[in-house]
Structures are given as structure tokens and as C-alpha cells.
Amino acid sequence: MKHLLKHFSLIAALLLVAGSAVAQERAAILTGAELTRVVPTGFYFQGLSAPTQMRNSAAARFGKDRYVISGLVDTSGYSADVRAKYVGFLITDSAISLNGESLPPGAYGFGFATEGKMTVMDLSGKDLLSVPVTNDKALRRPRPLMMAADAGGVRLYSGKDYVIIAAK
Amino acid sequence: MRQKFLSLVCISLLLPLALLAQEPEKPKSQQPMGGGGANTGPAVTYTSRRTVGITDPSAPVVFEDVTDKTSLSAFHHRSGEASKDYIFDTPSGGVAIFDYDNDGRPDIYLVNGSTMDALRGKEKAPRAALYRNLGNWKFEDVTEKAGVANERWGMSVAIGDYNNDGRPDIFVGNFGISRLYRNNGDGTFTDVAEKVGVARKGWSTGASWGDYDGDGRLDLFVPGYVQIDLNNLPPNPSDVGKSGAVGANFCQFRGVPVMCGPRGLPGEGDTLYHQKPDGTFEDVSVKAGVNDPEKYYGFSSAFVHVDDDKLLDLIVVNDSTPKQLYINKGNGTFEEIGYPSGVALNENGREQAGMGLAVGDYDNDGRIDFHITNFSDDSNVLYHNDGDNNFTDVTFQTGLGEVSIPFLGWGTSFVDYDNDGWLDLFVVNGHVYPAADAHQWGTSYAQQALLFRNLKGKFERVGAPPGNALANAWPGRGLAVGDLDGDGKLDLVINNLDAKPVVLRNVVATSGHWLGLKLVGDVAKKSPRDAIGAIAFVTTGNVRQRQDVFSGAIFCSQNDMTLHFGLGAATKVDKLEIKWPDGTMETFAVPSIDRFVTITQGKGI
After folding, report:
1. Rounded to two decimals, what is the model's pTM?
2. Are A144 and B349 in contact (CB < 8 Å)?
3. Of the four listed, B14, B92, B578, B586, which is most buried by Cβ atoms within 10 Å?
4. Mutation target among A48, A55, A76 for the B interface, most CBs of B within 10 A
């Protein structure tokens, strides 16, 4: 029994380490040419392609070659009801989690239609998931959109509100 | 390779998905271009307009509307059609107060707009107007003699004595080709814009004069707004429902068709003209690093001293895009620090639809602060200068936030209306969409102006007594401040869109002592003669006030450059210090107060 427990503990420890290694795959926030190389200049969502606000775009690389890209778009071409819920895009080439909620690879729209929540939509505007945001009162110079490294992955900020993106 | 894949994601991965979806078509009303200057969020139904008819029977009478007692009542501003189908129909209307004939009485210049028919030669163009101040609230229209009617689509006015001859000159920023009216000193002006190289094309807005390179000659900065092709105009709301317009996409505000822009329209870069020794100008925008390659929608600007060196810095207020703060490096170039300084965005990191700009030291800490007006459904913003090129958005803690949200602000200026030694604030408002009156959006097309009293660093709105000038609503745009009757109390002139202007005489009953300063720089010491860039510090007791001589700001307008200090109950000035544009400091004894004093650099009072 003692032997079995020892094996179980070892396996559990190995699993934890492995899981932790994946979850804590270090994220690098992209800047400069690295950033502009991956951010698309426009994005399709719900019947229109709109230009990206390049000044309000951000991207992170997990490990060697897994990317998460986000940007605000110029939503002026959309009707008021779409503009009320859609502000930008989120692209990921691998599975990620948003505040622990799983999101498969793909391209999505997002917005903050509900106070205190970030909503991710498919390209037809259908809600896929909604996660609560955290308000970072201590953030001194917030931006319309930015990413910052976090122990659990990457913080995706909209102003002082953020969600945590983690590689899966 | 990986990156290439990613950049193609939108097209290759998503379009097939969109095609496969094949769901029943959703009701859509998309349009190709922008529908307003701000993201206003979800629509809200209001029960009142909040921007008109707000009165307070117990409020003091501060201003009296004396427009109809003056010849300015004959002036009628016009910009496009009443339907406001296009963005160029909506922002025109600067105004300047300046003493063009050096008779000691400040005069008034009103910018006018234009119409498409006038541009096509089908009707007479609206005319700008210059009113000579004869004293006792009498003004003479001297436009014809002076030759300053412009007769182009006028936007802005900035005053500066560019040739250091002691006579103020007029730059008029146009939607079209701008003008520089050189003051000939005999009551006439000559447009020398082409000759000296500042005949800027495109859409010029709130310009500012300033000697950024310390050579004693004024230079000129002109923001650009939006690029418009008059032969290929965006959809306009008047065409909704018309035959032939079926299928056209219209811009919307809260689901209602409105004129398009600025978002969705291409912006225009900014221009810095450096004055050469021969009095002509060269475009140094790119070299200086202020050309605005992002092409933000520029509306207001001012050369001011943000830090404590002797070099003029520059702030540019942009519509719907970040504001820019340029710190002068002293080698002919500027460093843009809008984001790190905190000025680019509001405290929540949001871009705002910046319109007007007030420049002044509202808390008497010796540093220049900025108040900026914005679109409706958003607050105006007050940036406190913390020093070391850091600013903090203090809008809500100073009392300027909530009250400004329903208003669409334009001209804004600090003005110590009660001479208590603390800069108060006046804001001119008016919506861009006439449809605001047809829908309950909690706002209106014509709007009341806002007056805020400064209570030692906090602001409270001064109410409007019923029937008083401040109870009126106007489609306000430009604003200028000056003591028009020389009584030591600051008066105001407002230029209204498609309407007559408003002249507000300051009649406040409780007013403190005051001091008016007209500064004259020494050109031989490389200070511009009109002293733009000079700073005056007046100390009374333990209060040290600061006033700067600057050009432009407000919204496409110009305050009288005579510096006005309210002294409160103080019966003498303990100390007067002048930091001249060349950086030298002089201290003066002020023999008496409640008067205007002219101080010449190096020569004293």
C-alpha cells in the first residue's frame, strides 16, 4: 500500500510539473516590427471588413511559435447595435484559455457589451463565451488595448480592465 | 512562415466559415464610413435634454448678452446647409479678440464658413468680419476697408505679429487655401500667404503661432483635420429614402442617418512652418517630427511651455484619436510624449473626440494645465500638470466630469471672471447633428454654455438665472476672451454656427481687484515683439499666479493677448516676474493696480 501511494505521489507530481510547464509556457509580448508583422491590417466580422487601429493592437508569443493577436478595429462602418457589442478581434493559432474558459484556435470578435465582462463572438456575431474582467486600479497609463505579461500568461487590457490569456 | 499564416487567417480561415454559415440574413444597416466622433456605447433613452433650459433662480448674474446693442448682431455665420449633410458643414467658426489698430481697445474678428454653391460660384460667399472697437460697446464693421473678408470656407483664426513690426497679423485657417493677412498699419491688411509660403491647402484648423527655435521670429503650426474629395462625397442623410439612393449605405448615430466622419474618413497631417530671416516660411513638419504621419484628426493646437526650460512645446488636440504632446528638444525637433505623459488618453485609457483646448494654471502651482472639450455622451477632460512632463486626468475629482457629459463641447477658455485670483472656466457647446432635436438622446442641437467657478482648484457650475444670457442655448463653436470695455472684467465673444454671434458683457457684481499686462518683447534679444511665449508671474500674499502669452487654442480662436490677473482683495502686487521668450527673467515693481500696464523687455513699465 505504501509502495502504491509512493507511485501515485510520483505520478501526481509528474503530472503537476508537466501541466505547470504547459500552463506557464513563457509569453513574450511583441513590439515593433515583430508586432506589425503579425497584426492584420483589417478584420472581417459580421458582414464587413474594417481596418485595424494599428496603434491599438497587441500580440503575444507563447513558447517558440504560438501566437495570440488582438486589435481594436474602426467600427464606424457598423450599425449602432453592432458597435455597441463589437470593438476588436482576437486571433489565436492554438488553444488558449480566457480567465480559465477554453477557446479553440480561430479568429473571433470581442467586445464589452456587458458591464464588467468581455464577450467573445464568432464571426457572425454569435456570443461564444463571456468572462468577467478584473479592474487594475493601480495601472498608471492605461491604453485602449494592450497586453502585459502575467504569472498566469498574458493580461489583455482594455483600459484598466483585463482578462488573463493562458496557453493550453 | 508562421506569421504569414497568421496574417492570412482572416481571409482564408474565416470567409469559408462565413459562407458556410448560411443562416437567415440578420437585419443589418451597415454603412461604409464613420458615424460620429465618439463611441457612445449602448443607446440610452432619456427623459430630458439636459443641455437646454437648465436655470437657477438663485444664481448670480455674471454675463449680459449685449449682442443686439452692437453692430455684431448684423453678422450671420453660415456653413453648408441646415441639414448638415457633410462633416465640413459642422465645425466652422473661430473668433479673435485683438487690438489690430493699437488704440488700446480690443477689436473682434469673426470667421465665416461657406457653402457648396459658393465654392462653385453659384452664390456669393459668406464673409468674415472685422469689427473695430470704438469704445462704450460701439463697434464699426471695417471689413471692407481692412480687406479681411476671406470669402473662403473659414475655420480658424490665430493672431501673431509674424514680422515683428508691432502690428498683429491674422492667420485664417480654411477648408481650402488658408490666408495670412499682414497688417499694413493703416487699417488695411494684405493677404501674403502665397508670397510667404503659408497658403496651406486641405482642411486647416486651430493654428498657433510660436517661436519654437528661439530665433526671435514667429513660426506657425497648423493642424489638419480630414481629407475630403468634394467630387466624391460620402453618403449623406438627406438622401435617405430618395429614389436612386436605394442600396446606399448611410452613416448612423444611435440608428439615425447622419453625416459621415471623421472616423472612416482619411485624416490629414499637420504642418509646421518655420520662418526664415527673409520673412518667408518653409515647411519643416517632417524634419521637426510634428507632421502627424498617423494622420489624426487635428482640431486645436497651442505652443506653450509644458516644462521649465525656455523652449516652447506644442500640444495638438485631435478628434477621435489620441492627443499629441510634443516636447521641444532644442535642436529643431520635437519628441512626442502623448502616451507616456498621460495627455493622449483619458484616465481610463480611452481615446476621446477632442475639440477645444484651454491653457492655464488653474491651481496656481506654477505649471500649465489643459482642459479639453469632447463629444456628447463623454466628459470633457482636465489634465493637471504634475511636473516632469507628467499629467493626471483630474476631471471628475475637480468637478468637471459628470456635468459635461450631455454636452458636445467646442471653445473652452480659462477666464477669471470674478477676479478672485483663481482661473474659472467657460465652455461653449453645440451638437453636430440636427437630428439631436428630433430624438430623445438626452442632448440638443443648440446647447447652453457652461461657466465653472474655481474654488481653489475645484470647480462648481455657475447656474443660469432665468432669462439671463447663460440660460440661452446656442450652436456654439468659437470663443474669445478679452476686456472689451476696459473695466477690468473679462468679456466674451462666441461665434455660433449658422447664426449671429453672441457678445457677453461681464456684469458680475462681486469682483476683485485686477491687473492687465501688455508685454512687448525685445526683438534684438530674440524675443518676438508680441511676446508670444512669455510667462508672467504675479504674487499677492501667498498666491503666485501664472499667465502665458499664447496664440490659438480655445477652438479655432484667439484670446486677447493682454494678460489679465484677478487679484481678489489684494490691494497691491507683491511681486511681478516676467520670463521673456528668450528665457531671461525680469522682476518689476507694480506702482498701482486696477489698471493696464505695458511692459517692454529690458525697459520696464
Report:
1. 0.91
2. yes
3. B92
4. A76
pLDDT, tens digit, for every residue of B227-282? 999 999 988 888 877 765 544 567 888 888 899 889 989 999 999 999 999 999 99
Tell me, yes or no, if A1 comes closer than 8 A to chain B by beta carbon. Answer: no
- Residues of chain B contacting A42 with CB distance shorter than 8 Å: 10
The predicted-structure confidence for A25-55, as pLDDT tens digits, reads as follows 679 999 999 999 999 999 999 999 999 999 9
Helix, strand or coil, per DSSP, at residue B11: helix
Cα B231 to Cα B120, B228, B260: the distances in Å are: 12, 9, 15
Mutation for A interface: B4, B19, B22, B28, most A CBs within 10 A: B28
Q: In what order do the strands lie in the sheet with B219-222?
A: B208-210, B219-222, B271-275, B281-283
Q: Which residue of B has its CA nearest to A52?
A: B264
* Vertex B37 angle, CA B462 and A134, to 5°: 85
Residues in CB range of A71: below 8 A, 6 or more apart: A39, A40, A43, A52, A53, A54, A56, A57, A58, A88, A89, A145
- Chain A residue with CA closest to B37: the answer is A76
pLDDT tens track for B8-66:
443 333 333 333 333 333 333 222 333 344 445 555 678 888 999 999 999 999 999 99
Residues in chain A within 8 Å Cβ distance of B322 = 55
- Does B509 reach chain A within 8 Å, measured CB to CB? no
Q: Which of A101, A99, A32, A107 is nearest to A67 (CA)?
A: A107
Nearest by CB to residue B18, choosing from A39, A124, A144, is A124
Rg (CA), chain B: 24
User: Using a CB-CB distance cutoff of 8 angstroms, which residues of chain B are in contact with residue A84?
Assistant: 41-43
Pairs from A14-23 (Cβ < 8 Å, separation ≥ 24): A22/A167, A22/A168, A23/A152, A23/A153, A23/A166, A23/A167, A23/A168
Classify the C-alpha dihedral B592-B567-B62-B70 as positive or negative.
Answer: positive
